[in-house]
């Protein structure tokens, strides 16, 4: 099996759908859930599912990204990860870190990239009057929320949507898209998929 490390910062709902998907004839298994935030709700869920967890708090490094990443990389290497999945990991990574995992690191982003890189994607889609919104899984490169697309899922924007209702609709699709992409990626298939 390919070994998968999943990096989170928060609730970890995407992480759990990835963990739950990696059973049976799936070509990968979870080897580590790693967070920059000791309070991330996903850590307990991962541990309860029997997955090894680790925390590397970014705050003591006071903005020194390279020093933070020098620690962050250790549990990933120790776990023998073949693939790294960012799943709601809210720290920007340096070129050096990304290069180390180039071609084997994925990210999920809550917009139809190349639209709305960065934060507040749902509010921005609403403000723009978009009728369609969604989420993307892509290979991570040195440019934030850039890199080859592996899959996208679309949702309609409804007249009464708030950023919260739209986020919820998108998140439901994230939970379908990310496991779908990871399964194919772990099997060596990088053909982009479009759902919805
Ligand atoms: C997800 O919507 C994910 O796409 C987004 O954070 C949420 C994490 O939820 N990621 C980003 O915004 C990355 N910049 P989760 O912890 O429940 O998976």
From TrEMBL:
User: PROSITE patterns from the xrefs?
Assistant: GART
- Please list the residues that bind (6R)-10-formyltetrahydrofolate: 65, 107
List the signal peptide residues. Answer: none
**In chain numbering, where does the site feature Raises pKa of active site His fall?**
145
Note one Pfam family from the annotation: Formyl_trans_N
* Gene3D superfamilies reported for this sequence: Formyl transferase, N-terminal domain
Q: Which GO BP terms, alphabetically?
A: 'de novo' IMP biosynthetic process
One term of GO molecular function:
phosphoribosylglycinamide formyltransferase activity
Which InterPro entries does the UniProt record give?
A: Formyl_transf_N (IPR002376), Formyl_transf_N_sf (IPR036477), GART (IPR004607), GART_AS (IPR001555)
Q: Where does this protein act, in terms of pathway?
A: Purine metabolism; IMP biosynthesis via de novo pathway; N(2)-formyl-N(1)-(5-phospho-D-ribosyl)glycinamide from N(1)-(5-phospho-D-ribosyl)glycinamide (10-formyl THF route): step 1/1
**List of residues binding N(1)-(5-phospho-beta-D-ribosyl)glycinamide:** 12-14
Q: Which terms in the GO cellular component ontology are assigned?
A: cytosol
Q: Which UniProt keywords apply?
A: Purine biosynthesis, Transferase
Q: What Enzyme Commission number does this protein have?
A: 2.1.2.2
Q: Which residues cross the membrane?
A: none
Q: Where is the Formyl transferase N-terminal domain?
A: 3-182
The UniProt similarity line reads: Belongs to the GART family.
Report the protein's function: Catalyzes the transfer of a formyl group from 10-formyltetrahydrofolate to 5-phospho-ribosyl-glycinamide (GAR), producing 5-phospho-ribosyl-N-formylglycinamide (FGAR) and tetrahydrofolate.
Please state what the protein is called. Phosphoribosylglycinamide formyltransferase
């Amino acid at each position: 099996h390919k070994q998968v490390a999943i990096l989170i910062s928060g609730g970890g709902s995407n992480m759990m759908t990835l963990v739950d998907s990696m059973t049976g004839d799936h070509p990968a298994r979870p080897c580590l859930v790693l967070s920059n935030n000791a309070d991330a709700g996903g850590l307990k869920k991962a541990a309860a599912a029997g997955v090894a967890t680790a925390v590397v708090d970014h705050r003591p490094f006071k903005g020194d990204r390279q020093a933070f990443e020098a620690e962050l990389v250790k549990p990933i290497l120790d776990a023998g990860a073949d693939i790294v999945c960012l799943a709601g990991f809210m720290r920007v990574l340096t070129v050096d870190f990304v290069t180390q995992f180039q071609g084997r690191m994925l990210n999920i982003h809550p917009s139809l990239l190349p639209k709305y890189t960065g934060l507040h994607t749902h509010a921005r889609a609403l403000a723009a009057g978009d009728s369609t919104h969604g989420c993307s899984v892509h290979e991570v490169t040195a440019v934030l929320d850039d890199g080859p697309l592996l899959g996208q899922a679309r949702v309609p924007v409804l007249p009464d949507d708030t950023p919260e209702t739209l986020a919820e609709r998108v998140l439901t699709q994230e939970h379908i898209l990310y496991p779908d992409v990871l399964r194919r990626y772990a099997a060596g298939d990088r053909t982009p998929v479009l759902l919805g």
